[in-house]
Amino acid sequence: MENNIVIISEDISFLSELGNIIKAFNFKPLLFEKIEEGFKYLESHKPYLVISDLFFKGFKPDDIWNRFKLLNIENILIISDNPDTNIGTKVIQEGALDYILKPIEVEQIRLLLAKLKIKKKRTITDFRKIVTNNPKMLMVLKIAENAAKSRSTVLIKGESGVGKELIARMIHEKSSRANEPFVAVNCAALPETLLESELFGHEKGSFTGAISTKPGKFELANNGTILLDEITEMNFPLQAKLLRVLQEREIDRIGGREPIKLDIRIIATTNRDMKQIIAEKKFREDLYYRLNVIPLHIPPLRERKDDIPLLTKHFIRKHSALNNIQEKEISDSALKKLAKYDWPGNIRELENIIERAVVICPSHIIDENFIIFEDEIESIYEFSENVVALESSKAKDISQEESLSVKPGTTIAEMEKKLILETLKSVNANRTVAAELLGISVRTLRNKLNEYKKSGIEI
Q1: Superfamily name with CATH number, domain 4-123
Q2: Measuring CA to CA, how many Å separate 377 from each of 33, 372, 380, 398?
Q3: Could you tell me whether strands 214-215 and 201-202 are parallel, antiparallel, or unpaired per DSSP bridges?
Q4: CB neighbour list of residue 390: distance below 8 Å, 6 or more residues apart
């Protein structure tokens, strides 16, 4: 799909105005004043978006709309100054993104492009998908899918790094609100003094520094989903206001005079023991029960180690693609090393380790030497040595190759020994790189060298 946005209208000033708006969003606007010229272009091109009027001299709106449908335009927005609600309803029902009346506002285009970005992401390989074969996790996903069909509040519990936000996004994307906003708020990342304004918004002049009216995250998420991440970090007074939002489905801006009604899905997450913090009087019990309508508990990675091979291969594919690296494989010894680890950082830690291995490992196969845990991080400096050694070994001239030439009467065992020792010498005794060049495992190389040591050869 091209990065062009086609705009078709007989209104020259509108074409120019909208074209400038589109440029500001880093798209290339293609302007057509005549509908037939627009159709001719669309017969051989698939732009990112088509924005068009339906009212042109000498044409019926229905005929133009039917031509668009025959061209199988994936994303089309109708903008017109004709307030015919019947036409607007028809084109939306038949696949148009929207029917908007002039004058057009920049914010309307921004929101449309944001929604299209989300839609486009769903049509390509989505590396945010949830990967599991674990029975406990599959049950969580089943409950989450059922919950997605409702408007009920969901509380997702689990340790840091288990993928709570991923589950929240899945619920949103499988709901009837999928094409509406998904707004995530990290309650732990915002100071208490700013959190209320961020959530509920404020009116101009409501406090020092409020130089303009600002809608809060709840308003921005209206008709969609709001994720309150790490909700247990919210201060006690603000919890009372959130309770009212859950009860009344309305919010009050700071300094506002009238409540604002909302149609919104609320999902909250926590990595804390909520019963304990309720006992410590740090979280309202009534708010907990309002949030805990659909409870989901995400098991830590140490309880679903059967997913490690699947997740590992998923992350290898992901980071090979993101870093434009040929997709690598992982050795059995590396997988065994991953399986023995306790994973305090859960899936987030696993992904970091695999990304590191994909980027740093010079060979096509990631072995256990490139699975570097937190307490082994200093060994990352060995990686640069490996890469340098590998590159220098490839640059050896023919004279070095001639030193390995076969002489009549040389045994295969002697030739093998010479090949191994010369290769090891050429890479400054770096066993990992030597094994890669020889096409054998590090373990096999180590065993061979032990044999040579026993026969009196210094390694």
Answers
A1: Response regulator (3.40.50.2300)
A2: 61, 6, 6, 38
A3: antiparallel
A4: 362, 363, 427, 433, 436, 437
Q: Report the CATH fold assignment for 135-299.
A: Rossmann fold (3.40.50)
Tell me the CATH architecture of domain 302-372. Orthogonal Bundle (1.10)
* pLDDT tens-digit map of 118-160: 555 444 334 567 889 999 999 999 999 999 999 999 999 999 9
Domain boundaries, the chain: 4-123, 135-299, 302-372, 398-454
List the structure tokens of 137. Answer: 């996790």
Which pLDDT tens digit goes with each residue over 379-437?
555 545 555 555 555 445 444 444 555 566 667 778 788 888 888 887 778 887 788 78
pLDDT at 389: 53
Instruction: Please write down the HEC assignment for all residues of the chain.
Output: CCCEEEEECCCHHHHHHHHHHHHHCCCEEEEECCHHHHHHHHCCCCCCEEEECCCCCCCCHHHHHHHHHHCCCCCEEEEECCCCHHHHHHHHHCCCCEEEECCCCHHHHHHHHHHHHHHHHHHCCCCCCCCCCCHHHHHHHHHHHHHHCCCCCEEEECCCCCCHHHHHHHHHHCCCCCCCCEEEEECCCCCHHHHHHHHHEECCCCCCCCCCCEECHHHHCCCCEEEEECHHHCCHHHHHHHHHHHHHCEECCECCCCCEECCCEEEEEECCCHHHHHHCCCCCHHHHHHHCCEEEECCCHHHCHHHHHHHHHHHHHHHHHHCCCCCCEECHHHHHHHHHCCCCCHHHHHHHHHHHHHHHCCCCEECHHHCCCHHHHHHHHHHHHHHHHHHHHHCCCHHHHHCCCCCCCCCHHHHHHHHHHHHHHHCCCCHHHHHHHHCCCHHHHHHHHHHHHHCCCCC
CA-to-CA distance for 151 and 144, rounded, in angstroms? 12
Count Cβ neighbours within 10 Å for each residue of 68-97 and write b for 16 or more, e otherwise: beeeebbbbbbbbeeeeeebbeebeeeebb
**Stated length of the chain:** 459
Hey, which residues does 6 pair with through a beta bridge?
30, 50
The answer to whether 4-123 and 135-299 have equal CATH topology is yes
Q: How far apart are CA 159 and CA 271, in angstroms?
A: 5
Class of domain 398-454: mainly alpha
Render pLDDT for 180-226 as a digit per residue (tens, 0 to 9): 889 888 888 877 778 888 888 888 888 877 777 788 889 888 889 99
Report how far residue 73's alpha carbon sits from residue 42's, in angstroms, rounded to the nearest whole number.
Answer: 8
Sort 407 into a burial class: Cβ within 10 Å, 0-12 / 13-18 / 19+. exposed
